[in-house]
């Protein structure tokens, strides 16, 4: 990225939208040229605080830094999309994102915002269940307490049900079984210390490497 092609505003600032690898939008803040250069040099996202009129290494005091992955300017070079790995919650309220979550009652009433990045949030939720694994707990906590054999058995069961549903002419049942399979596969990934992100990375590399891969 050529900094000279960026369009900073009359105060010398450019907004940066921070997105995590799960697709979650974490926060929006301002950068001046120095903050951007520091971000690139240190590998940790640094902003310009308009209220304090000072450079602000995100997470400097809280420890919740943003480890830089990639910065992409938008089409007219006056906004930055900053892809970063968060080392903790990004909002001062202690929430992962500065943007309010969709209220629980709205979640049930409409499929929005059940987009693909929500899988990342689901993984975060399931990881919390894993750390509180309990034979007397929720369905997920019980599965984690029972360990890899039990979870792997569920994956095989659900895979069989997906196949049966795929052969019946019932789209709703088929999608439901696919959801069950994906859910239990996700549990198995976590149980073995892996993540859905690892799987996505493999798929992406296969695609990026044109010499091989199925896509
Ligand atoms: Zn916030």
- Count of helical stretches: 7
- Quick check: average pLDDT? 92
CATH class of the largest domain: Mainly Alpha
Instruction: Provide the spatial order of strands within the biggest beta sheet.
Output: 2-1-6-5
Strand content: 15-25%
The sequence of SSEs as H and E is: EEHEEEEHHHHHH
- Write down the domain tally: 2
Oligomeric state, counting identical vs distinct chains: single chain
The CATH topology of the largest domain comes to Helix Hairpins
Name of the CATH homologous superfamily of the largest domain: MazG-like
Q: List the ions, cofactors and other small molecules found in this model.
A: zinc ion
Main structural class: alpha+beta
Major sheet: 4 strands, mixed
Number of strands: 6
Stretches where pLDDT is under 50 for at least 5 consecutive residues are none
Summarize this entry quickly:
This protein has 215 residues and is α+β, with helices and mostly antiparallel strands. The chain has helices at residues 33-42, 104-109, 118-131, 139-146, 148-167, 171-191, 196-208, and strands spanning 14-19, 25-31, 46-49, 54-57, 66-73, 80-86. It has two domains: 3-86, Phosphoribosyl-AMP cyclohydrolase (Ubiquitin-like (UB roll)), CATH 3.10.20; 104-208, MazG-like (Helix Hairpins, Orthogonal Bundle).
């Amino acid at each position: 990225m050529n900094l000279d092609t960026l369009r900073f505003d009359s105060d010398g600032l450019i907004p940066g939208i921070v997105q995590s690898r799960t697709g979650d939008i974490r926060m929006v803040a301002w950068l001046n040229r120095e903050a951007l250069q520091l971000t690139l040099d240190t590998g940790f996202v640094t902003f310009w605080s308009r209220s304090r009129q000072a450079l602000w290494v995100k997470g400097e005091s809280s420890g919740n830094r943003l480890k830089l992955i990639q910065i992409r300017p938008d089409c007219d070079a006056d906004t930055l999309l900053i892809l970063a790995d968060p080392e903790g919650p990004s909002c001062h309220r202690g929430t992962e994102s500065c943007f309010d979550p969709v209220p629980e009652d709205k979640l049930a009433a409409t499929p929005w915002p059940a987009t693909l990045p929500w899988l990342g949030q689901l993984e975060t939720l399931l990881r919390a269940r894993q750390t509180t694994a309990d034979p007397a707990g929720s369905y997920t906590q019980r599965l984690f307490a029972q360990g890899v054999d039990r979870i792997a058995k569920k994956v095989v069961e659900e895979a069989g049900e997906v196949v049966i549903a795929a052969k019946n002419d019932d789209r709703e049942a088929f999608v439901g079984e696919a959801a069950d399979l994906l859910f239990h596969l996700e549990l198995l990934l976590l149980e073995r210390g892996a993540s859905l992100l690892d799987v996505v990375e493999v798929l992406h590399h296969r695609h990026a490497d044109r010499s091989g891969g199925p896509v």
